[in-house]
Structure formats: C-alpha cells, structure tokens
Amino acid sequence: MTSTAWTGITELVTNDPAHPESDGSPLGIIADAAVVEEGGTITWVGAEHRVPDTDEQRDVGGRAVIPSFVDSHSHLVFAGDRSAEFAARMTGAPYDGGGIAVSMEATRAATDEELRALVGARVAEMHAQGTGLVEIKSGYGLDVRNEARALRIAREFTEETTFLGAHVVPPEFRDGAGRTEYLDLVCGDMLAACAPHARWIDVFCEPNSAYAFTGEESERVLRSGLAAGLELRVHGNQLGHGPGAQLAVALGAASVDHCTFLSDADVDALAGSATVATLLPGVEFSTKSPYPDARRLLDAGVTVALASDCNPGTCYSSSIPFAIAVAVRDMGMTPAEALLAATAGAARSLRRTDVGVIRRGARADLTLLDAPSYLHLAYRPGVPIARRLA
Ligand code: NIG
Ligand code: FE
After folding, report:
1. Probe ligand 1: pick from 122, 167, 234, 255, max atoms within 8 Å of CB?
2. What is the CATH number of domain 3-68+356-388?
3. Stated pTM of the model
C-alpha cells in the first residue's frame, strides 16, 4: 500500500478539537498542517514540520483542507425533468408534493442502465463539489419492483441507502380504500423486497400534503421498518407544523429532516434526544419558503446537520457549499457552525464516526478549498472552490 502525505495546508479543519495542535475550537483547526493517508484511511494528522516519511508527498499549495461534506439526504434515483414546476413556483405556485408522481412515471419508464447512468452522474457532480459520503433514497418507484430496483442501483454507489416507499401514495392507490392498501403494500411485500438493499427507512410525514402521510400512518411505516431491521429517518415539518419531529424523537430516529416549521415543544423534544435536526436550505430556496431557524435549534442544544436534499422537485442542487452559504446568510448559523453541520453533524445523522472528521483511523475523505480559509465557503457563494482530494 502507498502512503501519501498531503502538505502545504495553511488551514486544516479537523473537527477534532482534542488534537493537541488544534486551536481547540469545535472545528479543531491546525495551521500549517499535513495529513497522511494509506489505503483510504487517515494514518497521521499534525503540524507539517513533524510529518513522517511517506511514499508520496503532494503539496496543495497553501490552501485550506476540510473533511469532505457528508450529504446525508438525497433522492438521486430519478428520471425526467420538472424544471417547469420550479419555474411556476417562482411566480407563486405552491409546492404540495403532487409533482412526485411525475418523477415516478419517468423513473418507472427508465431502463436500469439509464437510471444507473443518471445516479452515477449525480454522484460524480457531488464529488466534484467536495462531497464524500452520500445517502441515497428510493421513493420514485412506488411499486415493489421499482422501489427495489432503485435501492439496488443506489447500493452500487453508497452503503447509506434509504427505503422511501412511503414518499407519497401513488396515483393508482388514491381512491377509496387505496390509501390503506398502499400502506399495507409498503409495510408488507415492498418492505420485504427493499430491506435487503437498504440500511434506513424514511417516510414523508406531512399532514399538510394530501399525498403524503399522517403521524399515525408514518408511525406504522417506521415500526414496520424497525421490525425488518432498518434504522429510522423522517421527513418532517416541511410544509407546516406537524407530528414528524416528535414522532422521530419518540421512535429514536437518527434524524428528522426539513424542520422548517417547529413548535417550542418540537424543539424541546429534539434538544432532549439523540435525534439530529437536518436542515435542507436548498429546499426553501427552490420552493420560495421561509428558511428554518437554525439559531433556535443550536441555542437549544440540538445537533444540526445540513444536507442537499438533491431531488427533482424541491431542490435540484447537489451543492453543499450553496447550502452552507444560505445557512450563514439567512438561517443564523456562523460559518463554523454551518461547516460543522455539513460534515460532523451530517455524519452523526447517519450514525457514522469514520467520516466528517480528519483524525487518525477515519476515512480519508479530504476536501480541498481553493481558498486560504473555510470562511470562503460562505464568503464566495456560487464559486466552485471545493473539490474532493482523496
Ligand atoms: O425532500 N418532501 C418530500 N420529498 C422531497 C421532494 C420530492 C419531490 O418533490 O420530488 C423533499 O423535499
Ligand atoms: Fe427529501
């Protein structure tokens, strides 16, 4: 195995404040640093003047290095185009989840090869913008064959796959008893076919959408997933106040995602729990909605993550630097809090300790910034300064 030393790092964000050479802040910054990796694992982190001998030395030329972003929420397995829906929203049309059926039709019609190519291109787009690990959900198949197929293809790209058969009730089940029949299917045959390809189960818990699921329906889906050995994540409190956040806490979900509309009781419940609040600023941007109040969550002691939610409906952006810039500009996060949320916070939401941190033994997911400091992530919005190093 080849050992490689990355040198010339003027500012290394480790997220490891316990490192003796770091500034002790939550970002654990080491000035004039080096990182050594071997076989995809970090083997040494410290001041450059102490760097051990290695097979290769690579100088990054006086730039900042950060842990690669962890994108803990994405829906990359889809075909078709919904740009007209986005354009309509910009002139006042509301988002209600109805467009998911449009992506479902196109996704069902795509071949395996077409879907694989689409997912691969989107994952490559993420890597090119500094993201390392990515979570990928199903949710545009909405029948047994197509949900299982989406997860099989997603698994080719990541171990963090999420079964989202309970995204919306598909059109063919919307009349009469159809809704209950669809839930029976999701919790029965569909779950059985999907569980072997998924780590997580998720549900669009949103009583404010006619297409998504109530608190009771969501609880049934999540409990079925738990019984099948899956871990829990929840889409909650996106379009209005609702039961998602407290349900996620009550069932011990790793994360509740969106959290745009939270009551004081929701914030209190999250603060007293291990459930991460994942914020997805690209969604509010692309649906012209109010941004979630990250400051309120942080001040209450809630662990916050930032992710892209890259999907064809509410946010077709795979850019974590964009999410960071919005979070800093409009959600009350400091640049340090936003970066921590997009790395260590998102790792926590996936119950991972080997990513989102630059520490001996962690995965060698390093992101180079074409800038002297991480502050430039929010300071230079829209400028492609971040790319994956390893
Ligand atoms: O996370 N809210 C539910 N699901 C996606 C949007 C899906 C779509 O409109 O295609 C989201 O925002
Ligand atoms: Fe989502």
Report:
1. 167
2. 2.30.40.10
3. 0.98
